[in-house]
Design brief:
The complex is a heterodimer of chains A (about 475) and B (about 300). Chain A has about 475 residues and is an alpha/beta fold. Chain A has helices at about 1-15, 25-40, 45-50, 60-80, 80-90, 110-115, 145-165, 180-195, 205-215, 225-240, 260-270, 375-385, 410-415, 420-425, 440-445; strands at about 130, 140-145, 170-175, 200, 220-225, 250-255, 275-280, 290, 295-300, 305-310, 320-330, 340-350, 355-360, 365, 375, 395-400, 405-410, 430-435. The longest helix of chain A is centred in the N-terminal third of the chain and has 22 residues, at about 60-80. The longest helix of chain B has about 30 residues, at about 10-40. The chains are: A alpha/beta (about 475), B mainly alpha (about 300).
């Protein structure tokens, strides 16, 4: 009890003063949290303060963000060749920066990160693990992580997850994300280790193998992309499996748009109340966000600054407008290859006071002849909402003569009809001209994360001596 | 039965008087602590469970605090004690009464004690009022702190080791280095004397707050761990070895110090038997209940 108090104090002081956190101290705090849950069944009353962090206090939020930005910028100016040059060119003094006044510093793009990767690495940091973006939306970017980061993030995640009952010692987490997503896989495995839970990393294996592991292996938590979840649902239904076959109590999805149709089907098939819809991105790791039940995206503002910039003017977006997410992870949460004002090109629509759901990738926005912007989320939700359940959504969208043209595989409208499909899209606010192509072309229409299949010997007979 | 000529009559009277005070203090306090456990839930920090190292820290503080008390000037000791009692009472009773009543009550209790100590100790009645008022503070504090610890995850195992550690401490600092004796002498009649006591004629009889706390802890932890059956065993132990044995010990062993005070190391009697009782309970009843299991079995 006394030691725990000291550990909490050390962690809080580290967060407030912006110094490197003692990862060993954090790991021991996770252990304390586990013991607390074992003894009492739940954490004490002021747990929300720990989970929310210093930025949970609205009065202190502005001050905390200002300190975070200044601290991060000062470090980058001194240790990151890319940002030292960028700040000097912009003529900014890191000690005078304010969260609302960063416009003088150009945003960092994915192209910067790919083309000048070495310049992003901070002096004095040792590389430990590289992680890459999946490349489903373009050339992959490679991010190097230090050992400190690799130890820090799982501890922060595990502490929060244990305190909010998202991870229990009795849990078995099945991870069905690409094994090449090294950071995400590591975070899952290390968080489970710290929380005393078991972790089964399977990767994007054939659906039947994943279903067998879920059913027979007693998995209680599942982490997968929405497209893979959609494939799991179809596979489970094909095999006649239902909630009684699984022991799942939680499913977390991320990396793609999770449509309400797929989310409902996942809940129904696997017997979980709700599918967690998370936003995460390799380039801005460890910053993340969660969609609430209303579909609003809530960022963890303890770890960094989130700006919402107008897609055309790059000024702070107005209420109701579409905005690109520009994110800056704070020091000490990012160490080896930090980014500052990273333009994710993931789009959100602003509410009067807070941003709405993530729409994903500004590069895929379409403007129709009437001037309306069509977002990928609208299209994914509309396609996956078809009664034929063409999951995961395969389509190609383009604008011809001012009208939206939607190319779908034949299976998407099979037994439903093109006319009915057009009416369905019209109900969703999309006036589309449909083009139907053979099912064999479906995968080439739109890549999803579940396309990153990982073959196994059990799924396909191995050729020996061929 | 003829009186033993080696035992002075006033020592017999003093021992019997001590027995009455000790029984009243120990049994009343321990029973109230169990009632509190059944009725009230103490707020606890978000993360943290009592463990073995916490017991080590507690014993260390208990061992060093008397030295600090003796070294500090009087006003500083009073301030330190006031701070201790304010913390214990405010944490322990804020769930029972509103903030206004709580702080008013704490202020009145502590303020009255200081006033009584400064103005009323010229008469036996004044002493009795002083003791009585102080006893209320001590009982309330011991009940609150015992529950704070046990509801914070302190297990019977920890209490047993704590009592055993104090047994060693008590005998060393009473018989070898008479620090406890010096403290008893020093505190007598001073504000917020951390003792449960009473006066009759020229005799003062008192039981230290630390002893009260251990008895409360042992009974409460036994009840939490194994239920009423274990609590009965613990209560008998508190009665016999926490109250009766130390009170009557001076009739057999000479605990009279140079000033004529009788200072009995109570934990030396209680600690070893409390530890043996814990071992017996563990063997008989098995694993201790967690706080969660206790709450499920006996919801408030």
């Amino acid at each position: 009890m006394f030691e725990t108090g000291i550990r909490q104090f050390r962690m809080a002081m580290g967060m407030v003063r912006g110094r490197r956190l003692d990862t060993g101290n954090l790991a021991r705090l996770v252990d304390d949290a586990r013991k607390t849950i074992a003894e009492f069944g739940e954490p004490g009353m002021d747990v929300q303060q720990i989970v929310d962090g210093p930025a949970g206090d609205p009065g202190a939020r502005e001050h905390f963000a200002t300190q975070g930005i200044r601290r991060t910028a000062a470090r980058l100016a001194a240790e990151s060749p890319f940002y030292a040059r960028r700040f000097a060119a912009a003529g900014v003094d890191p000690a005078k920066l304010r969260p609302g006044g960063l416009g003088a510093i150009p945003v960092t793009t994915k192209a910067d990160l790919i083309d000048r990767q070495d310049e992003f690495r901070c002096a004095g940091t040792a590389r430990h693990l590289a992680t890459r973006t999946t490349g489903t939306t373009g050339r992959p970017a490679e991010i190097w992580l230090s050992r400190y980061e690799i130890e820090l993030w799982p501890a922060l995640i595990a502490l929060s997850a244990v305190l909010t009952d998202e991870l229990r010692t009795s849990d078995v987490m099945q991870v069905n994300i690409s094994s090449r997503q090294t950071a995400a896989v590591h975070l899952n495995a290390a968080s489970c280790r710290l929380a005393g839970a078991a972790c089964r990393v399977l990767g994007v294996v054939p659906v039947d193998e994943a279903l067998d592991a879920l059913a027979d292996g007693g998995s209680t938590l599942l982490s997968a992309s929405p497209s893979y979840l959609a494939e799991l649902v179809l596979g489970a239904r094909r095999r006649g499996m239902g909630p009684g076959d699984f022991r799942l109590r939680g499913i977390q999805a991320g990396g793609e748009v999770l449509s309400p149709s797929v989310a409902a089907a996942v809940s129904e098939t696997f017997g979980v109340e709700r599918v967690g819809d998370n936003f995460g991105m390799t380039e801005v790791i460890p910053m993340s966000a969660r969609a609430c039940r209303q579909g609003h995206l809530h960022h963890d503002i303890n770890l960094g600054l989130v700006e919402y910039l107008d897609l055309e003017t790059s000024a702070p977006a107005e209420p109701g407008a579409l905005a690109t997410l520009v994110m800056t992870p704070f020091f000490p949460y990012r160490d080896c290859m930090p980014v500052f004002r990273y333009d994710t090109r993931d789009v959100v629509r602003m509410l009067p006071e807070e941003p709405l759901a993530c729409e994903l990738k500004a590069g895929h926005l379409l403007r129709t002849g009437s001037g309306d912007l069509v977002t990928p989320r609208q299209l994914v939700e509309a396609v996956e909402g078809l009664p034929t359940r063409p999951w995961p959504a395969r389509f190609r969208a383009s604008v011809h003569n001012g009208r939206l043209r939607l190319t779908l595989p034949a299976g998407a409208v099979d037994g439903f009809g093109e006319a009915a499909a057009r009416a369905h899209f019209a109900e969703a606010g999309l006036d589309v001209a449909l083009e139907i192509v053979p099912d064999g072309q479906a995968i080439s229409l739109r890549h999803v994360r579940s396309d990153l299949h990982e073959t196994t010997f059990s799924a396909r007979p191995a050729l020996i001596g061929a | 039965m003829p009186a033993d000529p080696d035992v002075p009559a006033d020592l017999v009277f003093q021992s019997v008087f001590q027995l009455c005070v000790t029984i009243a203090g120990a049994v009343l306090c321990a029973c109230l602590a169990v009632v509190y456990l059944r009725k009230v839930r103490v707020e606890r920090p978000a993360i943290g469970v009592f463990n073995g190292r916490d017991i080590g820290i507690l014993v260390f503080f208990l061992a060093t605090l008397p030295v600090i008390y003796l070294l500090l000037p009087r006003w500083a000791v009073t301030c330190l004690l006031a701070l201790t009692f304010v913390s214990a009472l405010s944490i322990g009773y804020r769930n029972l009464v509103g903030p206004l009543r709580l702080w008013l009550g704490i202020g009145l209790l502590l303020g009255l004690n200081i006033w009584l100590a400064r103005t009323m100790l010229g008469t036996v009645l004044g002493w009795q009022l002083f003791w009585l008022e102080g006893d209320v503070i001590m009982v309330l504090a011991a009940v609150a702190v015992a529950n704070l610890y046990v509801q914070g995850g302190m297990r019977l195992q920890h209490v047993a080791w704590f009592a055993l550690g104090l047994a060693g401490y008590d005998i060393v600092f009473t018989m070898v280095f008479p620090l406890t004796n010096a403290l008893v002498e020093d505190f007598l009649g001073w504000p917020l004397d951390p003792s449960f006591g009473m006066r009759l004629g020229i005799y003062n009889a008192a039981l230290g707050l630390g002893d009260l706390l251990v008895y409360c802890l042992f009974l409460v932890a036994s009840y939490k761990a194994y239920g009423m059956r274990a609590a009965r065993v613990a209560l008998v132990l508190v009665f016999v070895l926490g109250a009766v044995a130390p009170s009557l010990a001076p009739l057999i062993i000479n605990f009279i110090d140079a000033r004529g005070d009788v200072v009995v190391p109570a934990q030396t009697w209680f600690g070893p038997f409390a530890f043996l009782a814990y071992l017996w309970m563990r063997r008989r009843y098995g694993r201790e209940r967690t706080m969660r299991e206790f709450q499920l079995a006996a919801p408030v």
